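User: Hi! I have a protein structure encoded as tokens and I'd like to know what sequence might fold into it. I'm fairly new to this, so please keep things simple.
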């Protein structure tokens, strides 16, 4: 049975809510629905790599290296901050010498520099030095497929943010309901109620944008979802931590698992500035802005 985009996005929202460890954004949406390799795998959409044909074709037309005897490649460059990149086969999507391509990279053949994001999730940098990719491992892509992979990555990250935001709401409401000050629960104070309402509002706004984008994958829908998700992170984390007080910053606090992921995911796969700029360009190029907003 084929799962729908909306079903996968809902699963990602739940993964974000539970702060589960793993490359969910890279695998649940299965960028381009590619069949992932056996064993652990992750995805990197890369630019700035140097790719050349391993066996350049001899031709009288065009400079040497513009075509190859086969699809085999030699790759050099850096794959920065790849989720679980040092321990997983990395499916790289990038521009090749003859157009967009997808190929696997075994981290054992690269120089891996371990790293993490603020939440402690692995974000490893892989340095490739004349890395050999066999012809059978190279899959050509169309420009549309490469663009779609970027949209899926951003939507997946926005869905994780939506789930983590909902977790912030759950934990904050639970804390203000059970924490008693001056003889009554915190939630009975008007100022606390107002902040909780703003927190719920921001979380609902993110989820609504993500659910709308999940109905049909489109540049405008995904841009709106990721821009809203990233932009709401600051307010969601601020209110949640303010209402929790100092305990929310401790290592044992459940809130920390949600907010550190929010702060990390905000910038991954494009921050709000990147996606709002895309929305602005789309609006300027549209013949009917109102029709664009209805997408």
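Assistant: Happy to help. Inverse folding works backwards from shape to sequence: for each of the 295 positions I chose a residue that suits the local structure. Here it is:
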């Amino acid at each position: 049975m084929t799962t729908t985009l909306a079903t996968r996005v809902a699963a990602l929202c739940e993964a974000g809510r539970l702060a589960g460890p793993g490359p969910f954004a890279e695998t649940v949406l299965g960028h381009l629905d590619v069949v992932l390799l056996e064993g652990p795998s992750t995805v990197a959409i890369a630019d700035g790599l140097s790719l050349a044909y391993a066996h350049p074709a001899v031709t009288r037309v065009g400079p040497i290296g513009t075509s190859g005897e086969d699809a085999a490649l030699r790759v050099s460059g850096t794959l920065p901050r790849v989720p679980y990149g040092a321990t997983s086969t990395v499916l790289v999507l990038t521009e090749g010498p003859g157009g967009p391509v997808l190929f696997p990279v075994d981290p054992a053949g690269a120089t891996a520099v371990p790293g993490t994001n603020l939440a402690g999730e692995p974000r490893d940098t892989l340095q490739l030095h004349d890395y050999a990719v066999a012809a059978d491992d190279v899959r050509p892509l169309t420009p549309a497929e490469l663009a779609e992979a970027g949209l899926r990555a951003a939507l997946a990250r926005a869905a994780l943010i939506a789930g983590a935001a909902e977790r912030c709401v759950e934990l904050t409401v639970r804390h203000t309901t059970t924490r008693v000050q001056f003889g009554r629960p915190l939630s009975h104070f008007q100022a606390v109620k107002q902040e909780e309402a703003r927190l719920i509002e921001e979380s609902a706004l993110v989820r609504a944008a993500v659910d709308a984008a999940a109905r049909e994958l489109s540049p405008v829908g995904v841009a709106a979802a990721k821009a809203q998700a990233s932009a709401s992170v600051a307010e969601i984390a601020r209110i949640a931590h303010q209402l929790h007080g100092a305990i929310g910053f401790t290592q044992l606090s459940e809130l920390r698992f949600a907010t550190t992921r929010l702060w990390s995911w905000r910038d991954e796969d494009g921050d709000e500035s990147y996606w709002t700029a895309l929305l602005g360009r789309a609006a300027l190029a549209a013949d009917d802005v109102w029709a664009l907003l209805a997408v």
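A useful reference point when you look it over: The chain has a mean pLDDT of 89. Feel free to ask if any position seems puzzling.
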